[in-house]
Amino acid sequence: MTVKAGQKCTSIRRVIVPRASADAVTSAIASRIAERVVVGDPRAEGVTMGPLASVEQRAEVHRQLERLIAAGGRVVVGSTEAPTVVRADGSVSVDDAGAFVSPVLLRFDDASAAAVHEVEAFGPVASLLVYDTLDEAIALVGKGGGSLVTSIATHDPAEAIALMTGIAPYNGRVLVLDRDDARTSTGHGSPVPHLVHGGPGRAGGGEELGGIRAVLHHMQRTAIQGSPEMLTAITGIWHAGAVSNHEGRHPFRKSLDELRLGDSVVSGSREVTLADIEQFAAFTGDTFYAHMDEDAAAANPFFPGRVAHGYLLVSWAAGLFVDPEPGPVLANYGLENLRFVTPVSPGDSVRVVLTAKQITPRETEQYGEVRWDAVLINQKDEVVASYDVLTLVAKDSYEADSPSSATASTSLAS
To answer: Does residue 190 lie within any of the structural domains?
Structure first.
């Protein structure tokens, strides 16, 4: 109710509580506001809630408050009168000219009143509604016509499941609070930026303010069809089938400034033996039957018999494509989109093709990100595994522990 003076889309507008708890909740809200909320100039020490955005907005909040009261809302906490505020100099006086509004809690005896579900004062105003059954509570949530977020407060898993199942269609996000997580919660109004945030209907159409998703949501998206070479040129991301460059220096010897999309390395082959599989199993503790039991593996519809661990092959792939000397590649920080496609049996051999897929400089750093397309292939030219390797690469020539490296850096900076 009071964060940003209630002027944010995820402020709590309707407090829906069991009938038996209504008085206790009202009392708790009144006590918390009395203890924590000091209205006034934010520059004054001790003030915890400032004015609304404008005097016009204050008038709008009062208009909506009048509509809610006319529809049956009773003021049970706060007042619609001009509030007492703390001035910038620390003095205290009644303010009827500024954009200040006291926190107000209304209580509706008739929870089905249309106005309480449709009118949004967009200020420090909330309405308390009561219910007798979970079905009634779910129906009240639905009457809002779509919400960005609803919080459920319960320590009963069965009750949480029933409420979650019932209200999910009306919400973009649901926060479940109980005695275990309430004190460490991000709070009702804190969106999760990497998720789609938004509710149905009038609450964002299902997607708004979700980090980079918010940007993409407001941009035109166009599908492109073309040859791998043309798609690579247009998108700036190398596509399989486009021209690749296997000649010259190992791509790990190239700085970000020298590296080009399609720069590639094709490794030599390495044969997989039964001893390799057993050594990896003993070393890692991964003794899954497909690697250790010939009969059980052969009975599996996916395997011809004992097969190599997928992670053994990925580890070998790193050894096959890496150039080990210090150089422009500063760090490997992960893999993405890993898929194991074809089983590898003892006696098979594997090799890897690594291709620069996407190059992204970091404007404020002396390095950038390079995404590499990695494809592991067996002796039959079948794809064994595919994934993206993520590395950080220096923008300019780099030689670790070289006496001239500091001089070169200083010269470059100057």
So the answer is: no
Residue 37 lies in a domain: yes
Q: How many CB atoms lie within 10 A of CB 374?
A: 22
Please give the tally of structural domains in the chain.
Answer: 2
Domain co-membership, 21 together with 126: yes
**Cβ proximity of 313 and 338 under 8 Å:** no
**Residue 378 forms part of a structural domain:** yes
Distance of alpha carbon 99 from the chain centroid: 35
Q: Note whether 239 and 118 are same-domain residues.
A: no
Instruction: Read off the CATH number of the domain in which 319 is found.
Output: 3.10.129.10
Last residue within a domain, chosen from 98, 132, 166 = 132
End residue of a domain, out of 79, 111, 132:
132
Q: How far apart are CA 129 and CA 14, in angstroms?
A: 7
DSSP 262: T
Is residue 366 domain-resident?
yes
Q: What is the pLDDT of residues 309-360, one digit of tens each?
A: 999 999 999 999 999 999 899 999 999 999 999 999 999 999 999 999 999 9
Helical residues (DSSP H) of 77-153, grouped into ranges: 114-118, 134-142
DSSP letter, residue 365: S
Is the distance from CB of 167 to CB of 16 less than 8 angstroms? no
DSSP string across 340-408: E-S---TT-EEEEEEEEEEEEE-TTSSEEEEEEEEEEEETTS-EEEEEEEEEEEESS---TT-TTHHHH
Q: Where are the alpha helices (DSSP H) in 344-390?
A: none
pTM of the model: 0.64
Q: Match 């590296």 to its residue by tokens.
A: 259
**CATH code, 34:** 3.40.309.10
Q: Report the C-alpha gap between 353 and 372 in whole angstroms.
A: 10
Query: Per-residue pLDDT tens for 155-169?
Result: 999 999 999 999 998
Dihedral angle computed from the Cα positions of residues 109, 110, 112 and 118, in that order, rounded to the nearest 10 degrees: -70
Q: How confident is the model at residue 403 (pLDDT cuts 50, 70, 90)?
A: very low
What is the domain extent for residue 128? 3-132
Q: How far apart are CA 163 and CA 134, in angstroms?
A: 7
Q: Which residues does 123 contact at the CB level (< 8 Å), separation at least 6?
A: 5, 6, 7, 52, 57, 58, 61, 64, 101
